[in-house]
Structures are given as C-alpha cells and as structure tokens.
User: Fold this.
Amino acid sequence: MTRLTIRQSFTAARAAGIVAFAAAASGCGSPAPGLARGEMLFDTCSPCHGADGAGDEVLAAPAIAGSSDWYLTSQLTKFQDRVRGYHYTDAEGLRMGPMSRALWSDLGDIESVVEYVVSLPIPDPPATMEADAAAGEAEYEALCVNCHGVDGRGVDQPLPELNAPSLLHLNDWYIASSLRKYRDGVRGAAPGDAAGATMRAPVSGMSDERIDNVTTYIMTMQRLPRRIPGPPPEPLPALIVDAAILPEGVTVEMAQEGQDLFHGAGVCVTCHLRGGGGGPLAPDLTDDVWLNIDGEYESIVNLVMTGVPLPQEHPGPMLPRAGTSITDDQVRAVAAYVFTLSR
Assistant:
C-alpha cells in the first residue's frame, strides 16, 4: 500500500494536529493533568492513530491502544529527545518528533495522554501478510522469546533497561517495518538507547523474508490477554567468588557488582541469558571456549568496550558497551563477573 512521503506526512500532521493542539492546550480552562486532559490531547493523535487508537496503515501510524503505559511513556520521551525519529529516511518518526514535542512536561501532558490511550479498548489488528509461519516460529524462539516471552506478552523487568513490550496488539505491517528499521539503523542506533541496541542485535543481517516469517508467526499467537506481562525472573543468587582466582586489581565486590550489571543495566542477559549460559544470540560464557579473545581479564574488558562487529558463530554484532551508557568502571565490573564464570 502506498504511504505518504516525508513532506506529505509533515503537512498532514500539521494540518490535523499541531494547530488544534496549540489552540486547545493554550486556551483558558484547560483540564488539569489526568484522563480529561489526555482525551483532549488525543484529538491531535487521532488523525493518524485513529479515534480508537487502532492505527492507520496509509499513514504508517501503528495501533497504540494496546500498549503498556511504561512503553508509551518511553517512546514519547524518545521522540522528544530525538532518540527515536532521528534518521532522515524515517518519515513516520520525523512526523512524530514535532508532535511529541508539543506535549508539555510541566503540564503533565505525556502522563495524561498515556492514561487516556491505555483506557481505550485493546484492538485486534487482522493479519495482512502471508509468509512462512513455521519458519517464523523457529526465528521467534531463537531470537525474540528471551525478551518478549513465549506468548509475546512481553516482560516488565525490575530494571527498565530490560523491559520488553507486548507484541500482541500490533499491526503486522508495523512489526515488519520496525524490524527493518532496527536492522538498518533507522531505529535503535541513537546514543544511549539501550533498548534499541538490544533490539538491533538479533535482527542484524536478517533478510526481508525472515522478517516477514517471524512477523507472520507473531500474528498467529493468542491475542489475549495483552496487558498482563509475563513474570519477571527470580532474584539472582548471591555470587560467591574465591578471591584467589581474581587478577590483580579485581575484587570480589567488583564481580558482585558486575553480576547485577550483567543482568540489568548492561543488558548482557538479553543475549547471553541468565548466568551467562549463552543461546542462539551469543556464546556460552561459562565454559573455557573463547571465540574472539583469550579469556583473560583485560581482554574481556577490551571486548566489552569495543564490541564484536563480526561474530564468528552468532547472528548479530555486539555493540560497544552493548549499546548502553555504562561507565568504564562498570565495564570493568562486568568483565570481572564474566571472568569468574568460566573459572
């Protein structure tokens, strides 16, 4: 289906929403933060996303009514901060950027519009693509299930860096388009976007055919419930380390901090899995086999710092610092934890 050009998208957005928003938000007697204000603000969203929040393929505006509040909030914030919608080929993102920046934080606009969107009935977009769902199931189990769950409901983790949204209210054309954007660096490549970096790794190098297959499989999943995330993982056991095995300058406390970072802000767990046991996306760190380095502490530090642009046995690159903003000291802590895993 033909979609609007960037120029047409901006023109449509401006005509449909920005003028109306300015008039409503600046007028006397505007509602206080909350559902009523959110409903008023949503008048500027509905020309693209629909009055019911079910999306519009012609405008490439996705269904949003089934999203979790934390996910809507994070995406609007990313658009405001140009962490999303930064690429010159991303017509939809470029359209959303100025719309998001019309929301005033001191007036509670984001919280209000999110509250209203979450109050809408959850849509159930029909499947419009025909590809190999069986092949897509294998792709999903290998690349997606660790974050989005076996049933696609997503997982709300204790740390926001590891949150994964539900996929079960989305249009298939939007899922496929988003995966291509992640693959091509149109989305998820902005500095500081840890979640985007996590998404880019498994789809790097995926062909359009494979993307269509996994999208087709997602659309076969049970569509309800969609706002009940899967349970977070059990708390990690305390890390017990023999200080005698640690290199000079590395402490037990560093390794313990590294365990928390590995399973949290460092997002290592999303590919290497809990405890570093490895999986389809990344190697096992608990054995004595090292694919890219010799396994010594400083080599691990350097690898985490610089990443692995061309993995030998896995589908996607590891970005420097896993695409996160963890500090040099935190990198050294993660390396200390990884060092202990194979010893």
Summary: Confidence is low (pLDDT under 50) at residues 1-28. Residues 168 and 223 are 6 Å apart (CA to CA). DSSP finds 15 helices and no strands in the chain. The radius of gyration is 22 Å.
